[in-house]
């Protein structure tokens, strides 16, 4: 297992760090983690499990799409306005969070009504799968995926 961890670290260094793709990697990881967490929380709210509830102001339900759009606008502006390499990782993570919050409610913008729990709500999941595929395949690159495949084959071959 220690060898696998070392191999993963070397692959990360070679395919992500040296190629300058760390920002894309952090966007992808933040996107996936946020999407999973938001789905869990949303299902808990819908099933009335736990203390979490929808955010409302008066009778107005504030969708988390709003927070996602705000994060995208703020991080996009900051990334363009300031060339600050020390903030690149933070902005990448926040951008990934904002993109996940926004795309998870893609069906809302597509249908202009809250169809999250309806059949049409499936288009949000489809949008997320497409976004993750594009990020994973094109941004991380061929070297990363070939190297990952070799690690998996080697790991299972040693079991």
TrEMBL record:
Keywords: Membrane, Transmembrane, Transmembrane helix
Source organism (scientific name): Sphaerobacter thermophilus (strain ATCC 49802 / DSM 20745 / KCCM 41009 / NCIMB 13125 / S 6022)
Name recorded for this polypeptide: Integral membrane protein
Keyword Membrane applies: yes
Regions that span the bilayer: 25-42, 62-80, 92-112, 124-146
Keyword Transmembrane helix among UniProt keywords: yes
